[in-house]
Amino acid sequence: MKKSLIITAVALVGASLTGCEDFLNDNRYPLSQQTVNSEFWSNPENVQNQVNYFYQDFLGYGNGTGSGDFYFKWTTDDQCGRTSFANWLNLSVPATSTNYTAPYTEIRRACLIIAGVEGGTITGAEAENFIAQARLHRARNYFTLVKRYGDVPLIKEVLDPAMHDELYMARTPRNEVMDFVLEDLDYAVAHISAQSGKTVFSKDMARAVKAEICLYEGSYAKYHQKDNARATKFFTEVVNAAEPIAKSYPVCDDYTSLYKSFRTAGGGYDGLTNNSEVIFMKAYEESVLMHSTLDYSCASDGIAGITRDAFDSFLLLTGELSSNATDKGVLAADGKSISIQNLLDVRDQRLAMTTYPNLLYPGMSWAGPNTAPMWSMTGYGVAKYDNWTVPNSDATTANRSWTCAPLFWGARLYLAILEAKAELGTITDTDLTNYMAPLWKRAKIDLSKCTIAHLNSLNDPANDVNVSSLIWEIRRCRRCELMMDDDIRYWDLVRWHMLDHLDTHKYPKIIQGANISMAPAAPEAVLGEYLDCSYGQSREFNERQYFFPIPSNQISINSAIKQNPGW
């Protein structure tokens, strides 16, 4: 069986797009049961089949009519929800939750693979490769649990009913869990056999995963735990993981090609598999596996557009702050639409690639190049994921999109390196030239301003968290570059200890949309000159939101597990 297995076919329909035999037929010993057959684990093809199950962990643009991790994560300051104002992710303690159980299912799968290979006859580098891939995904799933819950039980092997102490263990301190995660990541980087490959678990993909996880842990150590030594350790790990491969994934010239491309060349974009910036991707294929991101972001009723706060975060092309510049569009001659092309022309061009050039809101809908008339809760449409070569009938129909999703790519590496070096205090103008200038270049921001001196001079009044102007501007670049991507913004706010920035009373710009003062007939829901996106609701920060509540059934089953504070 070929190891270069297209992710989504395994995840959803169990078949490879690269000519592999039927995956489900090959999976004769499903890991829903404990496999102890040493003969099974001595067959490399069987082991590879089990490893391939981990592809289902990557949601990308979603599967079928379901939502994905791009565009649909509305509990941030970047977007307002599609049909009503999005509240906190958790409002009460659930009885059960797949947020808690699903990662443990995958951790058990990883432990089964590790134990099976160690007990089989596969040896040497081949065995290490399988174990390394399993450890990579065990690390990812423990990281997911720690992000959500903090301390979690650390289970390192397959448990059976006789292992009473392990089955009913208390929560392990998060630092111990994350140190274990780092061990797994280091093993994966050292022992995965494939160096690269956009649809395989490779060394480069493991390095990208390690960089993102260590960036989170370094920030958490610094801004939550006030542990500078631990922060330094993990920020250093970010640089060590990302910098050796950064030049192998140069930032491409066309920002939108990352989000709008098909798997193979065609439709006006090179195939995502040909994009030099992509490290790892989720591949879709017409009539095999499709998604609905285009349909939801081109819907006629209430798109989750970007907020005024997000709009203001994009710099002017001069490299200066845009928050004090005009945000008023121009009323069209026919009086039927408001163009914001004048605003997009003078700002970071990633904004022009993220939103449409006309406002669209209740009472003044607007049709894009391949969409029906639509409106947005914030007045700003979402153009970022819409491939305009896709026919209107497909773009506006659920489960009729097959553009591919990047999962790890050059820009994410570059931004991780910039932030880690800034936090370590080792960043130089050369680092900005290497890692920020390529992002500014495709945004068409004045590259002469891409210096530490200039970034330090901006002193954005919105910086109310006592970080340097330099770090704030690197965070701004990350926000603008990755806006609405892969559920990144919410967890950035968590790790920076900035989740209170989602409080609508303290930060009203996050429930304001476009400036509609030029509208011939403004809607009823306005906040001053801006659209009111709150639908009469509000969101008040409580410190308990930094962690998800432990499902009550877990505490009922195991009294050693205690609830998170405030829940």
General description of the model:
This protein is mainly α. The protein is 39% helix and 4% strand. It is built from 22 helices and seven strands. The strands form three sheets. A three-stranded antiparallel sheet has the order 5-7-6. Helix 5 (98-118) packs antiparallel against helix 6 (124-149), helix 10 runs antiparallel to helix 17 (410-424) and helix 17 runs antiparallel to helix 18 (429-443). The longest helix has 26 residues, at 124-149. The protein is globular, with a radius of gyration of 24 Å. It starts with 6 loop residues before the first helix and ends in a 10-residue tail after the last helix.
In short:
The protein is mainly α. Helix content is 39%, strand content 4%.
DSSP, total strands: 7
Q: What is the helix/strand order? A: HHHHHHHHHHHEHHEEHHHEHHHHHEEEH
Instruction: Classify the helix fraction into a percent range.
Output: 25-40%
Averaged pLDDT, please?
A: 91
Q: Which sheet architecture does the biggest sheet show? A: 3 strands, antiparallel
Radius of gyration: 24 Å
Q: Distance N terminus to C terminus?
A: 48 Å
Residue windows where pLDDT falls under 50 for at least 5 positions: 1-32
- Find the structural class using helix and strand composition: mainly alpha
Widest β-sheet, arrangement of strands: 5-7-6
Strand content: under 5%
Shape: globular
In DSSP terms (H or I, runs of 4 or more residues), the helix count works out at: 22
Question: What secondary-structure arrangement, pairings included, does this model have?
Answer:
Blueprint: H1 7-13, H2 23-26, H3 38-41, H4 44-52, H5 98-118, H6 124-149, H7 164-167, H8 174-191, H9 203-223, H10 228-246, H11 257-260, E1 278-282, H12 293-297, H13 308-312, E2 330-331, E3 338-339, H14 341-344, H15 349-352, H16 392-395, E4 405-409, H17 410-424, H18 429-443, H19 452-458, H20 469-481, H21 488-495, E5 512-515, E6 526-527, E7 530-532, H22 552-557
Antiparallel strand pairs: 1-4, 2-3, 5-7, 6-7
